[in-house]
Amino acid sequence: MNWITVATTAVGIVGGAGATLSVEHIRWRRAVADRVFQDRRDLYVDCIVTIRRAHEAMRGVSADGRTSAELAASVREAFRASGCDEARERMFLIDVSNEVEVAVTASYHTLREVREALANGHGLTSNEYNTAREAHGNATRAAREVLRRDLSANRR
Predict the structure, then answer these.
(1) What pLDDT sits at residue 111?
(2) How much is the pLDDT for 36?
(3) Cα 149-53-153 angle, rounded to 5 deg
(4) Is pLDDT of 26 > 80?
(5) Stretch 105-117: mean pLDDT, rounded?
(6) Would 129 disulfide with which of 9, 13, 117, 147, CB 3.0-4.6 Å?
(7) Cβ(121)–Cβ(110) under 8 Å?
(8) Distances from the Cα of 11 to the Cαs of 3, 4, 8, 15, 119, in angstroms?
(9) What is the 3 state secondary structure string of 17-44?
(10) Does position 1 have pLDDT exceeding 70, yes or no?
(11) Distance of alpha carbon 44 from alpha carbon 104, whole angstroms
């Protein structure tokens, strides 16, 4: 038996196995990166959608013609039940950039200003509500842009 043939075959087997393992490792890393990206995107979408739903829920209860005490309680309950606090906290549990944290916090705090305007009896046509709504809309649009940039930067 020729030892050169056996050695060449062994080198070929080791090289083939190494190449296969290397390709599989690259594929696994890509799958993990894709999953991390999808999770981040889902968290961002969940947070922005939850903030939007909270605004709509507060608008809905503020138009029901309740007494001022009932109105304040209903608006605050709509905000609390929306899950904004939880959605925001879930996002901050992952490693987000300072820019993302600042943008989402600005949207959240301006939503609280909307909540206070409505809870204090300022109707949907009042200057107080419209000023708060405009600030919230601007902050939320800015947050969306920051989130889009962050997702683009983290997409491989």
Answers:
(1) 97
(2) 84
(3) 10
(4) no
(5) 97
(6) 117
(7) no
(8) 12, 10, 5, 6, 76
(9) HHHHHHHHHHHHHHHHHHHHHHHHHHHH
(10) no
(11) 9
Residue 123 phi, psi dihedral angles, 5° rounding: -70, 175
pLDDT score at 130: 96
Q: What is the DSSP string of the chain?
A: --HHHHHHHHHHHHHHHHHHHHHHHHHHHHHHHHHHHHHHHHHHHHHHHHHHHHHHHHHHHHTS---HHHHHHHHHHHHHHHTHHHHHHHHHHS---HHHHHHHHHHHHHHHHHHHHHHTT--TTSHHHHHHHHHHHHHHHHHHHHHHHHHHHT--
CA distances from 140 to 55, 89, 104, 124, 144 (A): 11, 17, 8, 19, 6
Residue with tokens 């549990």: 93
The residue written with tokens 């190449």 in the block is 19
CA quadruple 67, 70, 73, 79: dihedral sign:
negative
Using the predicted structure, report yes or no on whether residue 156 has a pLDDT greater than 60: no
Residue 96 CA to its chain's centroid (Å): 10
Q: Among positive and negative, which fits the CA dihedral 23, 27, 28, 30?
A: positive
Structure tokens at 8: 């060449």
